[in-house]
User: Fold this.
Amino acid sequence: MSSLPTTQEKKTGNLSIGWLPKIAIMDRYLFIQMLTPFLFGVGAFSSVILAIGSLFELIRLITDAGLSVWTAFQIFGYQIPGFMVYSFPMSMLLATLLAYSRMSGDGETTALRSCGVSAYRLVLPALVLSLFVTGLTYVFNEAIVPAANWQSRSTLRAALNQENVQFKSQDIFYQQYGEVPQNDGSTKQGLVRSFYARSFDGKEMRGLTVLDFSQGRLQQILAAESAMWLPEQNVWRFSKGTTYLVDPEGNYRSILRFEDQNLQLPRAPLDLAQEQRSSEEMNISDIRRNIDLLKQSGNTKEVRKLEVRLEQKYALPFICVVFAIVGASLGMRPQRTGAAIGFGLSVLIIFGYYLLLFICGALGQVEFLSPIAAAWMPNLIGITAGLIILTRVT
Assistant:
């Protein structure tokens, strides 16, 4: 049985419900004012993004490629979570901008501040709501969006009778790096082994060539028709192949043919061939695992790209916090912003922010910025701008 508000709670305007913390009337009022435009923004922005990014293409596939309407609806449904994630921060900006602008235009913020409520205290409800939306965005990005994007692509390929493989089927390259002995007896990091397979059917690799540089030079060449990974023995079984031993002068000193031969080589080429998901179809743990595989293969360009994307997985949900501070600060300015102007201003801010995000991401991939700086710099710039506006309001 819940207790009635105490006299002190009535005087302060706070209400405690069971185990929940006390919520001031002003905070509840602001939450309610932001909730309606936030929900409107989620619907409006999601609809616009879906129409541009998905709906038009699905309609084209229905008319030109014979995609069934039911399958198009399925794919459309799978793509909704991915587009909703982008709408959450946009809606946060719209909600705070419209709510605080209406209160400012009606003189409510002036009345509250004349009662001793600071501008920083007025922004607090927006900050709390944005942190909740940030957590919601993170959960969507990790638990829902990657699987939904993957299912969307798989469903589309199956409907169009395209090859729907979950592995790389041709030209698998893997370069293993490790400690290589030098002529003076020391060792340094270098190429140990180069692995190439012409094709892969998901179980067996064919047309293999393995170059061994483990002694600091080309020591042997292995060529085989096929190879399979044996998980119970943790080895590769090469079939119908030839091993060429190379002397220090680069001449063949021995040629050994074999029908079957087990070699203790890394499993990494198989893992590398099986990982064919894009960064939008992977969560944080998937991206980390893929980075480790690519580091072993020496693909530094793709490693850098995924490192930037990994940091963006952490940084992007916090756009909600940035937009909440920017929207609330702009809304508390003396001039009133109508719904149409607020929506247009939100679009301009969103466009500028994502343009900055794209530029910083590109600079991170070309190693002009570190992955952390590339991912977090737009947030830092945005929150700095919001705080500057807020200080001028105070």
Summary: The chain has eleven helices and eight strands. Confidence is low (pLDDT under 50) at residues 1-13.
